[in-house]
Design a protein that fits this description.
The chain has one helix and 28 strands. The chain has 346 residues and is mainly β. Bound molecules: beta-D-glucopyranose. The site of beta-D-glucopyranose has 8 residues, from strand 25.
Amino acid sequence: MINKRFFGNLPDGREVYIYDIEDCDIKLSVMEFGAAMVSIYAPDINGADSDIICGYDTLDSYVEGDGYQGAVVGRWANRIDKGRFTLDGIDYSLYCNNGENHLHGGEVGFSHKLWSSEITGKSSVKFSYFSPDGEEGYPGNLKVCVEYKLCNNRIALTYTARSDKNTVINLTNHVYFNLSGYDSGKILDHELTVCAHSYLPTDEELIPTGEIRRVDNTPFDFRQKKTIGRDFNFSNNDINTAGGYDHCLVFEELDFSKPRIEAYDKKSGRGIRVYTDRPCVQLYTGNFLTNEKYPFKGGYPQSPQNAFCLETQIMPDSMNHSNFTVPILKAGELFESTTEFEFFIG
Ligand code: BGC
């Protein structure tokens, strides 16, 4: 079941709509601005529904507040060193919005665009955006779509894109989960399993050094279930100074039929499994959730580690490391990728 409702006007007057989608136990709301998820209501072990993602009450907060709440990020999720890369012998220079580096698509990435929308099925909505050649410095006119489909307590996100020039692409969704409910405090006692044998060490600006390092005997080893916070106060130089995970974990194998990640919250009995065709996930423990000006829904204050993101993607900055995943989308070819979040009660 789908219902479309008005959410608000952008500063330039354009109208933004939300779609409420309901199927089995889950109620998902998605909006045209940023093609973002704005709420996911899921039952706990006693059948009580809570909204398990962070976000804001007003459109203005989504426009002005930071954090990429629930949004699709691109053209390039994550960081690109100094915003520079070379493709087909041409040097490209992207907008640098994160110190000296490019993050999540630049000054006005896909997370801050108004996407057009259409209902594509009884529980699916598709958002489309046309990104012109040169936008944020990227080559190629790019038509990009993301379809959300809710079925059997699974939210499937399917991304497609096509460019008229060779270009680079790395799309993800930046939804912040707290399985106890977005207003329930820290997520450090959530249990996490990630089928990742390696991670990408970073420098102090969170740019990968180029090494693909085994997780054995490091805080990044989530192959056996452990709480997110177990190794949190690690005194390991490789960990960033922000005080938490903000790292790319590399999956052992690509296999869409098996979950690559499972997160579980004992308090509520809610869990999520993540299925993806992407080779990596950026595990981000909301270390920068500090913006006092933009509290979450109902005025709930932002606070670090009150939520976590599982941003499936290819390796960050991979255009600048010959040993990383190939990031190129060839002119005219179809880019297609799917990530699914499955909700369970245990
Ligand atoms: C990045 C963080 C960044 C955050 C912004 C995450 O994907 O890894 O470093 O601060 O997005 O919301």
